[in-house]
Amino acid sequence: MGRSLEVLHLIHSLDPKTGGVYSAVELLSNAMMRAGIQSRMSDDPKVEVSNPREWIIAHGLWQWPGRVARSFENRYLVYPHGMLDPWFKKTYPFKHLKKQIYWWVIQGKILRDAHAVCFTTQEEQSISPKTFFPYQVNEVLTGLGVEAPPHELDISKKEFWEKFPALKGRKTLLYLGRFHPKKGVDELIRSWKKRKHPKDEVLVLAGPVDKKDSWIQSLLSLAGEDPSVVWTGMLQGSEKWGALRSADAMILPSHQENYGMVVAEACSVGLPIYLTNQVNLWREVVDVGAGVAENDDRAGIQSLVDQWMGAEDRAQRSIAAKQCFEQRLHIDRTVENLCKIFEQASA
């Protein structure tokens, strides 16, 4: 379709500190531009649309982007980005009641009138109808993804080991992300400490460590002085890729995770994945043999650690992980799927 296509992404905030949704939209917009599509992002509710053929994509629910998208005569898509997950209904019942009322008045109509509502994973699509009613949605599975990893992976690996020499040559189970109660890191630490580990096995916990945060304090206390548990702090850029490239496998024990961009990044370098079935990407990972999924309870997370310790199929899982990335988790696949929607609408 090329350069005749114009797309406007509406997002509540363009501040990178807001995290996942911003990162996903930026990746998607950049990939569209590489494909020859005129793509722009806006966090301005007063944004103007002069071309009636420009496609609008509203990212997220409950904020202004969906209302503004519906106010134009242009066709529009909506990405819920996990905001229809019933986990929130169970965890925050009072907030859910207020959102249900808003759904009846505004949000449900926004999704009903959208040309399509785009889901990033099979799991997100399957669980979303269970949260609000009435549910009148034209569902489309478009996926999401990340770009290919940088070419200097070996350099990143070397630099990572120079910064963390104690990790060189050790069999590393890597957790990479925030430390939040929903991430399940407390159960991961408990499961890790229940087993006796050879000296060459290490659990690396990579993420921002604010020692004033009471939850992080509890995790640090739980880990204690165990030398097989290593905290690296937040890793970005080359350091992050060095950690991914040097690890033996990744673990994500979350109680709720809509996508998990870090899973896609791990697959891009051939890293086997051990995750819970509350990470919505679990089907994509397991279906191709790139990893293992278990329940997000204590027994399930213990099983993930145990299976990693006894794994003898890393080489096969590594190959499957790279295939999973190329076929399902590359951001270019998402652009191709969106282009099919645009083409079908124009036919």
Any descriptors?
347 residues; alpha/beta; Rossmann fold; 2 domains; 6-stranded parallel beta sheet; 14 helices; 12 strands
Strand order of the largest sheet: 2-1-3-4-5-6
Question: How would you spell out the order of helices and strands?
Answer: EHEEHEHHEHEHEHEHEHEHEHEHHH
Output the CATH class name of the largest domain: Alpha Beta
Number of helices: 14
Q: Which structural class should the secondary elements be placed in?
A: alpha/beta
End-to-end C-alpha gap: 12 Å
Portion in helices: 40-55%
User: Low-confidence parts lasting 5 or more residues at pLDDT below 50?
Assistant: none
The CATH topology of the largest domain comes to Rossmann fold
Q: How many structurally independent domains?
A: 2
Mean pLDDT across all amino acids: 93
- Rg value: 21 Å
* Main β-sheet description: 6 strands, parallel
Shape, principal axes of CA atoms: globular
- Which CATH-level-2 architecture of the largest domain? 3-Layer(aba) Sandwich
Q: Quick one: how many beta strands?
A: 12
Residue share in β-strands: 15-25%
**CATH superfamily name of the largest domain?**
Glycogen Phosphorylase B
Topology:
Layout: E1 6-10, H1 20-34, E2 38-42, E3 55-59, H2 64-71, E4 76-79, H3 86-91, H4 93-113, E5 116-119, H5 122-127, E6 139-141, H6 153-163, E7 171-176, H7 185-194, E8 201-206, H8 214-223, E9 229-231, H9 237-246, E10 249-252, H10 261-268, E11 273-276, H11 282-287, E12 291-294, H12 298-310, H13 314-329, H14 331-346
Parallel strand pairs: 1-2, 1-3, 3-4, 4-5, 5-6, 7-8, 7-10, 8-9, 10-11, 11-12
Helix pairs in contact: 1-14, 2-4, 6-9, 7-8, 7-12, 10-13, 13-14
